[in-house]
Design brief:
It is a single chain. It is built from 15 helices and 17 strands. The protein starts with a helix and ends with a strand. The protein is α+β, with helices and mostly antiparallel strands. It folds into three domains: 55 residues, no CATH class; 326 residues, Di-copper center containing domain from catechol oxidase (di-copper center containing domain from catechol oxidase, Orthogonal Bundle), CATH 1.10.1280; 155 residues, Jelly Rolls (Sandwich), CATH 2.60.120. Strands 9-17-11-15 form a four-stranded antiparallel β-sheet. A hairpin with a 5-residue loop joins strand 2 and strand 3. Bound molecules: 2-acetamido-2-deoxy-beta-D-glucopyranose (NAG) (2 copies). GO terms for molecular function: catechol oxidase activity; metal ion binding.
Length: 574
C-alpha cells in the first residue's frame, strides 16, 4: 500500500507540473476552455486535497475491499455532480451546462408517433445541393443560439465532452461515468445523434430532415465528404494533408503508411471484414465489455469497431498541429466538428448491419445494460430520461438508413503465403514460452500456443468462439499504445490487415487523469487484457486442426516501449 501511495504522489506531482506548463494553451481556445483557466489553481488544491487523505485508488485496491455490485442500482449519471474534467492528455476542460440539469424538470422518453415520417439517412457523398443547403442552414441557426439554450451547437458538442471525459459521477457512487471502451458505446452515441438530428430538423421546420452518414467503409465514401469543406460544415481544425482526394486510413495510428489509393482501399476493406465479421463473432468482441455500476462494475474493453475505424478516424481527421489532434482527435472537442455526426451515423448503421448478420437475435439481454439511463435535451429543450432499451430497435425511433452495398462483406482477406508453405517454415522455429511474465513490448514478441481443442464441429464453433487473450498488459504511463496480433505469420514486418494472418489490433488511447468530487473518485485499472476472435481465421489459414499455433504481437510506431505483457493464451467465448 505504501509503495502505491508513493507512486500516486509522484504521479500527481507530474500532473501539477503538466498543468502549470500547459495552462497557456487554453487561452486560444473557445469560451469553455477559457473558463478552465480560472479553475486551474482550484484544481491543484483539489488534487492536493486528495493527497492529504488517500492514495490513488486502483482496481486492485477495490477488490480487496470487496464491495459487492448492487444489482438493483441502475447505471445513470448523477446530474447534480457535473464537474471539471480533463482532456485525454490531462488538460483541464469544463463542459457542464450553465446550470445543473438536476434543477430542470425531467420527462420520460416516448417513442415518436407512428404517423411521423421515417427519416432516411443517406451517404454523405451522395446527397444533393438542396440537402446540403438545408443542413448548412440548420447548423448556422444552431450555432447562433445562445449558450444557455441546450440546442446550441457548442452545448451539443459538450454533451459528448461531459460523458467522455468523466464530468459526471454515477448516481449513488463515487465512480465516474464514461461511455467509451465498453458496451455503452453504441447505444449512447445512437441517443446523442438521434436528439441532435431532431433538433436540426425542428430548427428548419423539416420533419423529414435526416443526418447523412459518412460511408467510409465503401470505396466511394473513403474520403472526407465534400459537403464538410464548405459553409457552416467547415472545421478549420483538421489535418490538411488528409483532405480530399486523400483516402482515409481506417487503421490509422499517427503514422502515414503511404499506401497508394488502390492499396489503401483494399486494405481498408479487408480490415472492415475483420472488424465486422471474423473478429466480431461474439457480442463482447463487437459491443465491448459489460460496464456496470460502482467500482466493481468498471471495465475497459472496447469492441472491434470502436477501436478502429472509430478511434482511427477520429485521429486521422483531427489537426496534426494541435496537441491532442483537436477538434476531431480528442474526446472533449470531437463533436465540435460537424463531421462527427456523420461519422457516428455510419457507426450506428454498422451496429444494425452487425445485428442483421447474426439474424437480429437480441445481442444483450442483461437488464443492467437495458436499464442504463441517460439524459438528453429534445427539440423542445425538454430534458428527457432515456434507457438503452429504448434505442435497441431504431425503427421505433422513426429513422432508417438508405440501403448501400457493404462491399467489405466480399473482402475476406487471404493468407499472405500459402498455408502449406508457411507451415513448413514455422516448423523450423524454436518453441517459445507463452508465459511472458512482464516482457517488454519494445520489439515483436512471438509465442507458440497449445490449443486446448482441435477438430471442433461447426456447431461447437458457433457456440464458442476461439479467442486469443493477451493478458496482463501493463502500460506504465497514460500513453498511446498500439500493437497488432498475428497468427502463423512468417514475416509480420511486411504484412498488415490485408492479410489473413492479421487477427486484430489493440489500441490504448490516453485517458487523462479523472477528477471527481470525492477522493474515491479516481479509478484506474493498471493491467488490461485484449481478446480477439480467431475461429474463422484458423480455417482460412488451414490451421484448424493444428495442436499449436504461432502468435505474434507487433508493436506499432515504437509505442510498446513502456508496455509489458504477462502472457498470451487461448480461451473460448460463448
Ligand atoms: C449527487 O452528487 C451530489 C454532488 O456531489 C451529491 O451531494 C449527492 O449525494 C449525489 N447523489 C447521489 C444520489 O449520488
Ligand atoms: C520509458 O521508460 C524508460 C525507462 O525504462 C524511461 O526512461 C522513458 O522516459 C520512458 N518513455 C516514455 C515515453 O514514457
Amino acid at each position: 500500500m505504501e509503495s502505491k501511495r508513493w507512486v500516486s504522489l509522484v504521479f500527481f506531482a507530474l500532473i501539477l507540473v503538466g498543468l502549470s506548463y500547459s495552462s497557456h494553451l487554453f487561452l486560444k481556445d473557445s469560451d469553455q476552455q477559457v473558463q478552465s483557466i480560472s479553475f486551474v489553481s482550484d484544481l491543484k488544491t483539489t488534487i492536493l486535497g486528495f493527497l492529504d487523505e488517500t492514495s490513488w485508488v486502483t482496481i486492485e485496491d477495490i477488490d480487496e475491499e470487496d464491495i459487492k455490485p448492487k444489482h438493483d442500482v441502475i447505471l445513470t449519471p448523477n446530474l447534480s455532480s457535473c464537474h471539471k474534467s480533463l482532456s485525454d492528455a490531462g488538460r483541464p476542460v469544463y463542459c457542464c451546462p450553465p446550470k445543473h440539469e438536476s434543477l430542470e424538470p425531467i420527462i420520460d422518453f416516448k417513442f415518436p408517433d407512428v404517423s411521423e415520417p421515417i427519416k432516411v439517412r443517406k451517404p454523405a457523398h451522395m446527397v444533393d445541393a438542396d440537402y446540403i443547403a438545408k443542413y448548412n442552414k440548420a447548423i448556422t441557426i444552431m450555432k447562433s443560439l445562445p449558450y444557455d439554450d441546450p440546442r446550441n451547437f457548442m452545448r451539443q458538442a459538450n454533451i459528448h465532452c461531459i460523458y467522455c471525459t468523466g464530468a459526471y459521477n454515477q448516481q449513488n457512487s463515487n465512480s465516474l461515468l464514461k461511455i467509451h471502451r465498453s458496451w455503452m458505446f453504441f447505444p449512447w452515441h445512437r441517443m446523442m445523434i438521434y436528439f441532435h438530428e431532431r433538433i436540426l430538423g425542428s430548427l428548419i421546420g423539416d420533419e423529414n430532415f435526416a443526418l447523412p452518414f459518412w460511408n467510409w467503409d465503401s470505396p466511394e465514401g473513403m474520403f472526407i465528404p465534400d459537403m464538410y469543406l464548405y459553409g457552416s460544415m467547415v472545421d478549420t481544425q483538421r489535418d490538411s494533408s488528409h483532405l480530399p482526394p486523400r483516402v482515409a486510413d481506417l487503421y490509422y495510428d499517427y503514422h502515414e503508411r503511404g499506401l497508394g489509393t488502390v492499396n489503401q482501399i483494399s486494405t481498408n476493406l479487408a480490415f472492415m471484414y475483420n472488424q465486422m465479421v471474423s473478429g466480431a463473432k461474439k457480442t463482447e468482441l463487437f459491443m465491448g465489455c459489460p460496464y456496470k455500476t460502482g467500482k466493481k462494475g468498471y471495465c475497459d474493453g472496447p469492441g472491434t469497431i470502436e477501436l478502429a475505424p472509430h478511434n482511427a478516424l477520429h485521429t486521422w481527421v483531427g489537426s496534426n498541429l494541435n496537441p491532442e489532434r483537436e477538434d476531431f482527435g480528442a474526446f472533449y472537442s470531437a463533436a465540435r466538428d460537424p463531421i462527427f455526426y456523420a461519422h457516428h451515423s455510419n457507426i450506428d448503421r454498422l451496429w444494425n448491419v452487425w445485428n442483421e448478420l447474426r439474424g437480429n437475435k437480441p445481442a444483450i439481454e442483461d437488464p443492467d445494460w437495458l436499464d442504463t439511463t441517460f439524459y438528453f435535451h429534445n427539440e423542445k429543450s425538454q430534458l428527457v430520461r432515456i434507457k438503452i432499451r429504448d434505442v435497441v430497435d431504431n425503427s421505433k425511433l422513426r429513422y432508417a438508413y438508405e440501403n448501400v452495398e457493404n462491399v467489405w462483406l466480399n473482402a475476406r482477406p487471404k493468407p499472405s503465403i500459402p498455408p502449406q508453405i508457411s507451415r513448413q517454415i514455422l516448423k523450423m522455429r524454436e518453441s517459445r514460452n507463452p508465459f511472458l511474465d512482464g516482457r517488454r513490448l519494445d520489439t515483436t514478441i512471438r509465442v507458440k500456443l497449445h490449443r486446448p481443442k482441435t477438430h471442433r464441429s461447426k456447431i461447437e464453433k458457433e457456440q464458442e468462439e476461439e479467442i486469443i487473450v493477451v493478458y496482463g498488459i501493463d502500460i506504465s504511463k497514460d500513453m498511446y499504445v498500439k500493437f497488432d496480433v498475428y497468427v502463423n505469420a512468417v514475416d509480420e514486418s511486411i504484412i498488415g490487415p490485408e492479410s489473413r494472418e492479421f487477427a486484430g489490433t489493440f489500441v490504448n488511447m490516453m485517458k487523462g487523469v479523472r477528477i471527481l468530487l470525492n477522493k474515491e473518485d479516481l479509478v484506474m485499472k493498471r493491467k488490461t487484457i485484449f481478446k480477439v476472435g480467431i475461429t474463422e481465421l484458423l480455417e482460412d489459414l488451414d490451421a484448424d486442426d493444428d495442436e499449436t499455433i504461432w502468435v505474434t504481437l507487433v508493436p506499432r510506431g515504437g509505442t510498446g516501449i513502456n508496455t509489458t505483457v504477462d502472457g498470451v493464451r487461448i480461451e473460448y467465448l460463448k
